[in-house]
Design a protein that fits this description.
This protein has 262 residues and is α/β, with parallel strands linked by helices. 34% of the residues lie in helices and 16% in strands. A hairpin with a 6-residue loop joins strand 5 and strand 6. The relative contact order is 0.20.
Length: 262
């Protein structure tokens, strides 16, 4: 990555940073989205069909109306139950090893419809539950990359810890950096790496504050990161995943498979 030659970022900025939040945790609409709005940033909130969405439609609509993205995180959060002891919390019925491509496609379409009824938008990104990107039993896994590219602007894949090179993004499965449990210094270090490389940094968070989710970042560390991005807006473009992906795709369209989704 070369930060100076043909920078793809707007207004002389040197990197893009997308803050993404998974699993529809109430603290996202209670604290995070208002904070981002107050600081002039937009984030991506990846929702499922769980009760914290279906029982809080107006709260999430308010988040979308403030300019944030509601991302698709499936309806039922299926993951590969492999090895089973690691995913003991997952209902066997929602094991991606037992899913067909058609079943996942059906679920993603209904999840998109649910989100569209909330935010009235047709373009959004996808977040792979557990970072898993295949269906079918072990040894006969089938990649869902084509499905993601047919249904979404882009997909966020597993937590690779790596930055996205804007010259060659893998839109089916963009790498991301885990933010849960990190200190502000560590989060800031990732931002500075993105500035240095001219890259797109995608952070993945779950809870914000102790007790909000099994995986969480301390509120102080998170809020300090938001302050840092706001204070460095001349260098860092803090925007939702769909905004950054559409910005890059306006310069170089994504390669997408032909034909309708399954
Ligand atoms: Zn999740």
């Amino acid at each position: 990555m070369n930060p100076t030659a043909n920078s793809p970022w707007p207004a002389g900025q040197r990197c893009a940073v997308s803050l993404t939040y998974d699993d529809a945790v109430p603290v996202h609409y209670q604290h995070v989205a208002p904070l981002l709005s107050a600081k002039g940033l937009t984030g991506t909130f990846n929702l499922t069909g769980q009760a914290s969405v279906t029982e809080a439609i107006e709260q999430w609509r308010h988040v979308a109306e403030a300019g944030h993205e509601l991302g698709n995180h499936t309806l039922f959060h299926p993951c590969r139950r492999d090895p089973p002891e690691r995913y003991g919390w997952l209902e066997p019925h929602y094991d991606l090893c037992a899913y067909t491509m058609q079943r996942l496609a059906d679920e993603l379409r209904v999840a998109n419809a649910l989100l569209r009824l909330i935010d009235r938008r047709t373009r959004r990104t996808f977040a792979h539950p557990c970072g898993h990107a295949t269906v079918g039993p072990a040894g006969r896994e089938i990649s869902i990359d084509d499905l993601v590219l047919r249904l979404f602007v882009a997909g966020r894949g597993s937590s690779t810890g790596r930055l996205v090179d804007p010259a060659c993004p893998n839109y089916a499965s963009l790498g991301c950096v885990g933010g849960d449990g990190k200190t502000f210094d560590s989060l800031r270090e990732s931002v500075e790496q993105a500035v240095e490389c001219g890259a797109w940094l995608i952070f993945i968070f779950h809870g914000v504050g102790k007790g909000t989710h099994g995986g969480y970042v301390e509120t102080e560390a998170h809020d300090a990161l938001v302050d840092y991005l706001a204070a460095n807006a001349d260098r860092c473009w803090g925007a939702s995943m769909v905004e950054v992906a559409l910005h890059l795709q306006a310069q170089a369209p994504a390669k997408r498979p032909d034909g309708p989704a399954t």
